[in-house]
Structure formats: structure tokens, C-alpha cells
Design a protein that fits this description.
about 350 residues, alpha+beta, Alpha-Beta Plaits, Double Stranded RNA Binding Domain, eight-stranded mixed β-sheet, 11 strands, flat
């Protein structure tokens, strides 16, 4: 049961923010207060509703104990209704009060790589990337391809993209892992089903203040960009390879003709990978408390299977199967999977928090 003092404190904080918003003219303060106001608004509405129900229950209990039998019966009936409503409302509020991942509002670097399965794996990697591209379009996010290595039979050996917008990481983070496909390839003459895989990485983009990179820790090499088969596709040393020597992380970019642009893209990816490594280390320290949670982000874990003959998509982390493969792979039906994963993650974190208490 959420203490009433905590509900009162939430409402009090919200009202102080509203007062501050109406009295300040400082632009930075207005932006900060508006963000805090937006984050608390729904929570406070729910807290006020729960507080109101609790007060009504106290008043009704007094009427139930009164001398007026007719009034007591009416009060008793209404009290039972509120007692049934209160637990669900309290549970909903508990979920809303869970600590928020500070990276949830971040844009992301999306990396899709072909895994086992040869040409079919590359084709599947292309299908996955287009699914996310369409999903981003539906959400109003912007997709900027950073680098792409196309496969001869179609799809991608590897593709990186910057997906920017509000709350991208909050919805995309559950896509990290190994995605498996089962279908009959177009090149298969005997109709046999093949199993292939692709790996998805979702890296939150840090703010400048989130991670600092010492220039002295970097080794920057420039070279000529190369295409399929290794042939040179540029007459100048425009491609850039950056090695972060303390971590050993290496990032290369060669898609732009400008060395400056390739370096900027490489630095963006490097920052995201270093930030992801820091987050992974922090998560490892809390591994015992978070064991089994769907948001682990382990990219070696098989998270989902797309079975084309049965038009079936199964997410193995939450044992959810949907017979909507065409809708999901087109991006339009992905929200149903994401919503289910978010709900399960919240439930897991709530259970872990209650265990700690």
C-alpha cells in the first residue's frame, strides 16, 4: 500500500512546480519546469484520484457504523465498490512511480547485422531494418542511415542508422538481441524451410554531459573508402577509423565523401557504444535483482522468431505468440509486441522493488 504521505508529497511537489512556472520568466527554468510538469501530470492525477477514494472510504465507514440503517446499507454498498476499485488503481499508480530509465527519452543508434544463414540472413536483416524504418515513420521519428554494407543477393550484411525523436529508446530497447526467421528462401527449389538469424543492437545516444571522451585516448586513422570486393571507390583518404584505446572499441565510417563528416558520424557511434558499455556495467552490478527481466538487452540472446509458413511471431522472453507476421514485419503491428514487453518489464521491476522492500 502506497503511504498517504507519499501521495501528498507528490501533489505538493506538483503544485509547487505549477506555482514556479507561473512566476518565472527565465527561459531555461521554463523548459526545465515544463518537463518536470509533464512527467508528473499523469502520476499526480492518479494520486489525487486514489487519495479521493481513500477519503471517501473513511467517510463511508463512519456512515456504515451510524444509527441510520438505510444510510448504512447504501454506504456499505458504495464502500464495497470502492474497495474493489482501489487495489487496481493503486497497482496502476505503483507502476507509474517506478524509477524511470534516464536513457528512455534518448534517440538511438540502431545496428542490424546478418547472422547465421548466408544470403538469407542478409535478406532478413534488410527486412528487419525496413520494419524499424516503417515503425519510426509511424512514430514520427527521423531515420538517418549512417553506414550500410549491402549483400549481393539483397538486404544487408550490416547497417547502422541514427533514429531520433522523443522516447525512441524507451520503445526500441527491447528489440536488442538475436532475431530468428524460418521461411522458404526464394532460391530454395525443393520448398525446404531454412532458419536464419540477424542481430539487432539498440544503443541510446548520450547527451554531451553523459559521457566525456579524452582526445588523447583516441587513435584516428584515415584511408580510402572501399566498395564490394575491396576496390577503391574514392581517390582521397576520406574514410575514418577511430580506436578508443582504453576500451579497445573501434569504429569505422566511409559512406560520406567528406573525411570531416565520416569522423563526425564515427564519433557519434563511438559515444553511443561507450555509453552502452557503461550502462551494461551498471546493469551487471544489479544482475541479481533483475534476473529474468525482459529489458536485459543481451544481444547474444535469441529473443524472437518469425515463422513465415505459419504467419507466426513468437517473443520468447514473454512467451507471446501473435499470428500477425505480415503486419509486424511491415512495422504496423510492432506496437502490440512492444506494449506487451513494456508491461512485462514494469511488472518485473515492480516485483523486484517489492522484494527489496
Amino acid at each position: 500500500m502506497i503511504p498517504q504521505e507519499k501521495l501528498n508529497a507528490l501533489v505538493d511537489k506538483f503544485e509547487k512546480i505549477e506555482t514556479a512556472m507561473s512566476s518565472t520568466t527565465n527561459a531555461e527554468d521554463i523548459v526545465r519546469l515544463s518537463k518536470e510538469h509533464g512527467e508528473l501530470k499523469d502520476v499526480v492525477e492518479k494520486a489525487r484520484e486514489l487519495s479521493s477514494i481513500r477519503k471517501q472510504m473513511v467517510d463511508l465507514k463512519e456512515l456504515c457504523d451510524g444509527d441510520d440503517k438505510d444510510m448504512a446499507e447504501m454506504a456499505d454498498e458504495e464502500l464495497r465498490t470502492l474497495k474493489e476499485k482501489a487495489p487496481a488503481l493503486e497497482h496502476e499508480l505503483q507502476l507509474m512511480l517506478l524509477p524511470k530509465d534516464k536513457a528512455d527519452d534518448s534517440s538511438v543508434i540502431l545496428e542490424v547485422r546478418a547472422g547465421t544463414g548466408g544470403d538469407e540472413a542478409a535478406i532478413f536483416a534488410g527486412d528487419l531494418f525496413r520494419m524499424y524504418q516503417r515503425y519510426a515513420q509511424i512514430k514520427g521519428w527521423k531515420v538517418d542511415v549512417l553506414s550500410a554494407s549491402e549483400a549481393e543477393m539483397g538486404g544487408y550484411k550490416e547497417i547502422q542508422a541514427d533514429i531520433s525523436g522523443d522516447g525512441v529508446f524507451a520503445r526500441m530497447k527491447f528489440e536488442a538481441g538475436v532475431h530468428r526467421v524460418q521461411r522458404v528462401p526464394e532460391t530454395e527449389t525443393q520448398g525446404r524451410i531454412h532458419t536464419s538469424a540477424a542481430t539487432v543492437a539498440v544503443l541510446p545516444e548520450p547527451e554531451e554531459v553523459d559521457i566525456e571522451i579524452n582526445e588523447n585516448d583516441l587513435r584516428i586513422d584515415v584511408f580510402r573508402a572501399s566498395g564490394p570486393g575491396g576496390q577503391s571507390v574514392n581517390t582521397t583518404d576520406s574514410a575514418v577509423r577511430i580506436t578508443h584505446q582504453p576500451s579497445g572499441i573501434v569504429v569505422s565510417q566511409q559512406d560520406e565523401k567528406s573525411q570531416h563528416k565520416n569522423k563526425a558520424k564515427a564519433m557519434k557511434v563511438l559515444r553511443a557504444r561507450l555509453y552502452d558499455a557503461e550502462r551494461a556495467h551498471a546493469e551487471a552490478e544489479r544482475a541479481a535483482a533483475r534476473k529474468g527481466m525482459v529489458g536485459s538487452g543481451d544481444r547474444s540472446e535469441r529473443i524472437r522468431t518469425y515463422n513465415f509458413p505459419q504467419s507466426r511471431v513468437t517473443d520468447h522472453r514473454i512467451n507471446l505468440t501473435l499470428y500477425k507476421l505480415n503486419e509486424i514485419i511491415a512495422g504496423d503491428g510492432l506496437d502490440e509486441l512492444v506494449d506487451a514487453l513494456i508491461s512485462q518489464d514494469r511488472a518485473d521491476r515492480l516485483a523486484a522493488m517489492q522484494d527489496d522492500e
